[in-house]
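Recall the central idea of this unit: under ordinary conditions, the amino acid sequence of a chain determines the structure it adopts. In this exercise we apply that idea directly, starting from the sequence alone.
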Amino acid sequence: MNFKPIYAAALAALSFAGAHAQDVSAGKTVYAQCAACHSIDGTNGAGPSLKGVDGRKVGSFPGFRYSRAMKATAYNWDAAKLEAYIANPQTAIPGNVMPYSGLADAKQRADLVAYLQSLK
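Accordingly, the structure predicted from this sequence is:
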């Protein structure tokens, strides 16, 4: 059996994965765009705190007044849901009132999600 194609495919897969690895530090830089409305320290501002957002039920951070659309959303935030919401909030959760049109850059979204997941 010739293993060269298998090794080449594995090497290509590792190279691709490395090129798209999430960077928490870069995500913290991207987060600066969010900081005007969202804290990471557990306090609410114009938007709810993002501290502990990963795994939290949508529309449930204590003390924040959410839109009906957010309160009616019946799932918890995870990487895929965060990424979709950051890409286009109105498509992800129609009727939400966050005045943000979305982040087009997929790498920046992945980095931002990695950063948000690090906020425990």
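Confidence is low (pLDDT under 50) at residues 3-19.
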